[in-house]
Write a structure and sequence with these properties.
about 10% strand, 9 strands, five-stranded parallel β-sheet, alpha/beta, about 425 residues
Length: about 425
């Protein structure tokens, strides 16, 4: 009997200790970064090898989506991971196929466009692509309500794209005869973020993303060295383990509510992610089997701090937009350039507790480059506007929105955020035209 009492007392003591520890974690908000690490990643996270697995290399635009059509069941799973509170929309389901240019789009082949169609092209990175896929329906509806005819949305945006990739894709589409009426360019973050990181490594920001393009080239061409393959395997292993921990916790809602459990699981995830980053860093520092086949371009600002080339990046961004505008004007196409919103732009949105937990990492490199880079983009934006181009700063599009909008620590927004973004773009296109 005494033995049973001791066991019960030990169990009670353990339970009380866990309850007390849980209360301490909640009261003092301990280990927030570790708890945040348990959140499911966004769609740009590719545990099976990134660009080499999800994309095909393209000789002009850098890369294109590899999947011909995303199976509806798989698309539903992705939707549930990205937008757990929203039901999958018919518009989004229509955007799960790759168009002839290699972008997920609701319209597949430009040769099927009719003369009476009002054709809108969307260009930019992942934020632009998601606006087209998840918020494009409201943009289409707004334009059709203005009696422009049947609107066809042609997506030319993809994750990781930055100028001059948008310019190259737009030019390619025009060369093949896509009859655009309106072109929407929604960009800004990838230019300053990826461009800055690449420049600090000595890779010119004019070129496509170094980590996506060069490594994708090496693995696609079978030119990866044994060391690269071994390190890539280590990266994939660590990322898969981190994802396994996340998914295990996500499937147990009762455990997910515990700050203590999330902190412990998050600590393990962060260790695995640190291991993956370290291995990826080593892999990127290796001489790539593909680098010797790729042209180099120099500049005095390269191989310095992460923000040393910001002025050069801003100039490339501005000139690319002006070139798109000039080409569009010469073809009778209306061109609209939008600076994308981002949570690290000071005063751009009142944040919810959920956003503070999952979407804000004030000490991250993302936050640093936005603080330094967005003033440069805004300045260049005024220069673009002074040249007669329809330029709009959408960094305040969520100003006054007290609901949760941002869903990760990069830049991506939830379904409602994409709908708001699509509506804002539609309103400005119509307002400018009238």
């Amino acid at each position: 009997m005494e033995g049973v009492k001791k066991i019960l007392l030990l169990c009670l003591s353990a339970v009380l200790t866990l309850v007390f520890t849980e209360l301490v974690f909640r009261i003092f908000d301990l280990m927030p970064a570790e708890r945040q690490a348990t959140e499911l990643p966004g769609e740009e996270h590719h545990p099976d090898g990134g660009v080499a697995a999800a994309f095909r290399l393209h000789p002009f635009q850098g890369w294109a989506v590899a999947e011909q059509t995303v199976v509806e069941a798989d698309f539903q799973k992705r939707w549930d991971n990205i937008f757990p509170q929203s039901k999958v929309s018919a518009w989004a389901l229509a955007n799960r196929s790759r168009n002839v240019f290699g972008f997920l789009s609701s319209f597949g082949d430009y040769r099927d466009l009719q003369e009476e169609d009002f054709v809108v092209g969307i260009f930019g990175g992942s934020v632009a692509a998601q606006m087209a896929i998840f918020g494009g329906d409201i943009l289409v509806n707004q334009l059709e309500e203005r009696d422009v005819g049947r609107v066809r949305l042609v997506n030319g945006a993809a994750g990781g794209f930055k100028q001059p990739q948008q310019l190259m894709v737009f030019s390619q589409m025009l060369l093949l005869g896509v009859p655009f009426d309106v072109v929407v360019n929604l960009d800004g973050l990838n230019e300053i973020r990826t461009g800055s990181f690449d420049a600090s490594d000595g890779y010119h920001p004019l070129f496509p993303s170094r980590s996506q393009y060069l490594k994708g080239l090496a693995f696609s061409a079978g030119a990866a060295s044994r060391s690269e393959i071994e390190l890539a395997g280590g990266v994939i292993r660590a990322q898969r383990l981190a994802d396994t921990w996340r998914l295990s916790l996500a499937g147990r809602r009762w455990l997910q509510r515990s700050h203590l459990v999330r902190a412990l699981v998050g600590s393990r995830i962060r260790m695995l992610e640190a291991e993956a980053r370290n291995l990826e860093f080593q892999m990127q520092r290796l001489p790539s089997g593909s680098e010797k086949y790729v042209a180099e371009l120099g500049d005095p600002c390269l191989s310095s701090s992460s923000t040393a080339c910001m002025s050069l990046i801003g100039d490339i961004w501005k000139r690319s937009s002006l070139a798109m505008a000039a080409i569009a004007h010469s073809e009778g196409i209306a061109y609209y350039h939008f600076l994308q919103p981002n949570q690290y732009v000071e005063g751009s949105k009142p944040f919810t507790d959920e956003e503070r937990r999952i979407a804000l990492r004030e000490t991250s490199l993302n936050a640093e480059v936005v603080r330094v880079g967005y003033p440069v983009l805004r300045e260049r934006g005024l220069e673009i506007k002074s040249r007669g181009v329809s330029f709009f700063d959408l960094t305040g599009v969520y100003l006054g929105r007290e609901e949760t909008i941002y869903r990760d620590s990069c830049c991506h927004v939830n379904w409602q955020g994409n709908q708001i973004l699509g509506a804002a773009i539609g309103e400005r296109i119509y307002g400018q035209a009238h």
